[in-house]
Design a protein that fits this description.
The chain has 212 residues and is α+β, with helices and mostly antiparallel strands. The protein is 26% helix and 31% strand. It has three helices and twelve strands, in the order αβαβββββββββββα. Strands 1, 4, 5, 6, 7, 8, 9, 10, 11 and 12 form a ten-stranded antiparallel beta sheet that branches. It is globular and about 40 Å long. The protein starts with 8 loop residues before the first helix and ends in an 8-residue tail after the last helix.
Length: 212
């Protein structure tokens, strides 16, 4: 009867380790080859795209301009935006006086000697429509999650909550308010960006793409 031989345990473990090492090495080499091939294909694709699209015009927004909330040329600024960094004399002109109290103007108060249309400065959706005893009718439009515009002291309101609004659409007409009874045709316009009121004059100079 032939004697039986049994491999020692350390020999078996060594064989396993060598086998696993060979498999890992093979996978690494395969992966590296595929990665290099993919990188080359992507580079070639980008290069072909540059060549093939060379004569294709770049698509841009039809209009990057932010409208003012009116078009009537008789509209004037009655009270500017109160900016803490302005000269004290400029700040004084941006204060609203009501019942023995001075309040900083958080928007721009426009006025005219005749009724004027109030329009949307950008595309958006009507978020709120309400009436205030002092300010009059107020329409708030949401343009994005971080940008809202508020149109206050309106006489007639032409929109309802939920309406989709295009830039330049009619929102309402100018009207009076109880805080500044200097005119029967006013608009208090505010811009709220990232939860903070900003100067509408600075807002008009911004680009639509900067606000997206």
């Amino acid at each position: 009867m032939k004697p039986k031989y049994k491999l020692k345990s350390w020999v078996v473990i060594s064989v396993y380790i060598i086998s696993i090492g060979a498999i890992v090495t093979s996978l690494f080499l395969i992966g590296k080859t595929l990665k290099e091939a993919t990188a080359y294909d992507n580079l070639s694709y980008i290069y072909r795209g540059i060549i093939s699209n060379r004569d294709v015009p770049v698509i841009e927004y039809v209009n990057d301009e932010i409208f003012k909330p009116y078009e009537n040329e008789t509209v004037k600024v009655l009270k500017g935006y109160y900016d803490r960094s302005d000269d004290p004399k400029v700040q004084e002109k941006a204060l609203i006086y009501y019942q023995n109290t001075y309040m900083p103007n958080t928007g721009i108060l426009y006025s005219s000697n005749e009724s004027f249309d109030v329009i949307s400065v950008l595309d958006g959706k009507v978020e709120d429509v309400k009436t205030d005893n002092l300010i009059g009718n107020i329409v708030t439009i949401k343009h994005s999650n971080n940008l809202f515009t508020s149109y206050q002291s309106l006489n007639e309101v032409m929109v309802s909550v939920g309406d989709e609004i295009k830039q330049g659409d009619l929102i309402g007409t100018s009207g009076p308010n109880q805080i500044t009874p200097d005119s029967e045709n006013m608009l208090l316009f505010e811009v709220i960006y990232n939860g903070v009121n900003i100067n509408p004059e600075s807002f008009y100079q911004m680009n639509i793409k900067d606000l997206s």
